[in-house]
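quick one, 174 residues, struct below
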Amino acid sequence: MTAPTDSRLTVAIPLFDRFTALDAIGPYEVLQRIPSIDIVFLGHETGEVRSDNAMLGITRDATFEEVPAPDVLVFPGGFGTRALEHDDRVLEWVRAVHRTTLYTTSVCTGSLVLAAAGLLTGRTATSHWATYAELEAYGVTASSPPRGCPVGSIWRSDWSNYWSTGRRPRRPSS
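---
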């Protein structure tokens, strides 16, 4: 059964200098095919941002402040995450939206930003092996998936019920 048309979900995918294209475009390609999901690329400002190899430019349609309560956060990885670990604007936004997201997720080194925001302390996160020491410094148990860096989640509600019945999970209370 598909989700009701009146309960659209907003998925926020932050884009930043030196993001890994696959980490943002992979989830986008899957999620944009679901009719009840709206995806917004966002960042510090609107406009084009280049991937880590500078070969791909993608347009950010909104700023962090313009998307204060997405239903899902997918934080991609890339070399640019290292600067974001110390970016108070990004970390505060991540903490704020996490209070009401149904899913807060990351792909590969995007977990560094979630860890820097304090969301992964005491948890296990998957990421590239080169970030293990950094994740562990944040109090995160680091591991690698068998292949690549799939999306890892902080589970917030019963989504299996949503996909099978079309009834949207309730947002957690603040």
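The first strand starts at residue 9 and ends at 14.
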